[in-house]
Design brief:
With 193 residues, the chain is of the alpha+beta class. The chain has one domain: Glutamine Phosphoribosylpyrophosphate, subunit 1, domain 1 (4-Layer Sandwich), CATH 3.60.20.10. 34% of the residues lie in helices and 25% in strands. The chain is built from five helices and eight strands. The strands form two sheets. It has a five-stranded antiparallel β-sheet with strand order 1-2-3-7-8, covered by helices on one side. Strands 5-4-6 form a three-stranded antiparallel β-sheet. β7 and β8 form a beta hairpin. The chain is globular, with a radius of gyration of 19 Å.
């Protein structure tokens, strides 16, 4: 999906649960929408707040590629917990990407070769640990990360991580259950969008 002048393009897999909230805010700032889709909200959020400002506002499960022809930059982005997968491979001057390995393997420029270490890890634990994949030359974008591609320069950046604290909160069992109930209810409401 492109923006209005086709200078920004996005390929998106996922759901943005709070897209209606941000669509309203973006319309109030003058952004014109051609659909009611969460995909278009990402484009306008990027236009308004840049890549990190856009990502920090997204609540959902997602993997996307956003290309900005004005800046000559491409971004590959994966959600905070990595619910939606995103595989990528650099082949000469190109980046291949997809939500499934078969999207990369389908490209004639890619010669699939099993990563023996990842295969061993998979047979032991039933998964491969990011950033490795089961194929040599193919990486998995880690949860809470994005890649910025400008020409042949590739930078991986972390935009989110779990913040652990030693701070003790003196809550009663009732308070804990009430907080849990509230968070679970809010989560289900968001997912129902």
């Amino acid at each position: 999906m492109p923006n209005e002048d086709k200078s920004i393009w996005i390929v998106f897999n996922g759901e943005i649960y709070n897209h209606n909230d941000y669509a309203g805010k973006l319309k109030a700032k003058g952004h014109q929408f051609n659909s009611a889709s969460d995909t278009e909200v990402i484009i306008h959020a990027y236009e308004e707040w840049g890549i990190e400002g856009c990502i920090e506002r997204l609540n959902g499960m997602f993997a996307f590629c956003l290309y900005d022809s004005n800046k000559g930059k491409t971004y590959l982005v994966r959600d905070r917990l990595g619910i939606k997968p995103l595989y990528y491979s650099q082949q000469n001057q190109s980046i291949l990407f997809g939500s499934e390995l078969k999207a990369i393997v389908a490209n004639p420029a890619f010669d699939p070769d099993i990563n023996i270490e990842s295969l061993s890890h998979y047979l032991t634990t039933f998964y491969t640990a990011a950033p490795d994949s089961i194929l040599n030359g193919v990486s998995v974008l880690e949860p809470g990360h994005y890649i910025e591609i400008e020409g042949v320069n590739i930078k991986t950046k972390c935009f989110w991580d779990i913040q652990l604290t030693n701070q003790y909160i003196d809550w009663s069992e009732k308070q804990i259950l009430e907080k849990f109930d509230h968070l679970l209810e809010e989560s289900v409401k968001l997912n129902m969008v």
